Amino acid sequence: MQAPAAIAIQEGPDHVYTLANPSYRQFLGNRELVGKPLREVLPEFARLTQIVRDVYRTGEKWEGHEQVFKVDRGDGNWVEAYFNLIVQPVLGADGVITFGFEVTDLVRARKEKETLASDLESAVRARDTFVAIASHELRTPLTTLLLQADGLLRMLEKPPADPDKLRERGGKIQTQALRINRLIGSLLDVSRITGGRLRLDREPVELRALVEEVLQRSEGALKRAGCAVQLTASAVVGQWDRLRIDQVVTNLISNATKYAAGKPVRITVESDGKLARLVVADEGIGIDPADQARIFARFERAVSERNFGGLGLGLWISEQIVSAHGGAIRVDSRPGLGSTFTVELPL
Amino acid sequence: VSRLLLIVEDDLPIREILRELFIDEGYRVVEAANGLEALQRLEEALPDLIVLDLWMPVMTGGELMQRLKADPRFASVPVLVLTAATEDVTGAPVVKKPVGLEELLAKVAEKLSGGGG
């Protein structure tokens, strides 16, 4: 329910209040109004004062919808409220009457609806972009796979085929098939996580050994990217889901090779007895402060117009995994100087 | 003398197989991992055809095409876009990934003989 209309009358060239109903007075902090000129009691309401002056001077009615004013709700706090205002000359008198109808609830409800609609719109847009990226990323390994297979078939058609070369082609087909499978795994992770079906199989996991394992697996990619790794680690054992934590570590290291090619990567594993802390610090392109919150969101990549490969899901999935473990992941980054990702996991 | 192809592609496995297949077909090949590297290769030797990926880091295929159009030395070098992107904004002839070997070689040959737009 909205409050009843606020009504006031000011008379004469000095706009002296001759009437102010309880509702009007309450909005203005219950101050004494009648008998006082407008500019004296409402010095902070310059706009309202100006409207009253203009109506008095021109004799023309003024109407305004959803005008914002600060009002007092009776608790001494001045809060924003919306009013439909009518200010008009008083017939047969030397004065101006103001009617204020509060519409704050209506405006709020409408704004909320507008925000919801625009959130929905951007969610749909993000999903469309994601579908475009996902199909691009799936077609990329498919391209190699298909061409390698065609190349292999062509070799078989023109014997003698070099068995080493055939084996190499077969191996590359296998690699791309596995790459496609990993991408599909990430896509399934999205629906698993959004459906609340991320289940953790906890077991004792030694984080340093896990990081070393991932580094070994990533050796080729790190070398190709020209990233020298410096690992400072002590043994830390916690109750975690091995495969999921492996996924987080792999993602952070893979990001470093993507965004910090040619630069060293420093990795630290430590513990304070309660928390395990993994730090992956690169000296790459870094992340603009404006983008730093966004990178953990779904379907977001800070550098989307320049495709760095991948689905743009890695950090979102990592964040979800770390949170499911009761931990936290954060980034500290300066554009051009590099990014430092810190993962904290309760033991 | 055999024709020179410039492959501009950020995905290493694709770049490798394209190089092998084109060389098997009798072409000479130079490579670049993005648009900026492609500009460097262009300074070194003018290719008969550029096989161009679109979504790349550092400088995209679309950005490279703008640069080529603006440079009289490179404006007439034919370009064959090879992309996995669904939308194409360059207006150049496009081969969609994934593509089979026969089709790819046919498109390259057609483009080199002055066809295909």
The CA-CA distance between the termini of chain A, in Å, is 53 Å
Strand order across the biggest sheet of chain B?
Answer: 2-1-3-4-5
Largest sheet of chain A: 5 strands, antiparallel
What string, H for helix and E for strand, traces the elements of chain A in order? EEHHHEEEHHEHHEEHEEHEE
Low-confidence sequence ranges of chain A: none
State the helix count of chain B: 4
- Largest chain interface and its two residue counts? A-B, 27 and 27 residues
For the biggest sheet of chain B, the summary is: 5 strands, parallel
Description:
The complex is a heterodimer of chains A (347) and B (117). With 347 residues, chain A is of the alpha+beta class. Helix content of chain A is 45%, strand content 25%. In chain A, strands 2-1-5-4-3 form a five-stranded antiparallel beta sheet. In chain A, a hairpin with a 3-residue loop joins strand 11 and strand 12. Chain B is built from four helices and five strands; from the N terminus they run βαβαβαββα. The radius of gyration of chain B is 13 Å and the shape is globular. The two termini of chain B are 25 Å apart. Classes of the chains: A alpha+beta (347), B alpha/beta (117). At the A-B interface, helix 4 and helix 5 of A face helix 1 and helix 4 of B.
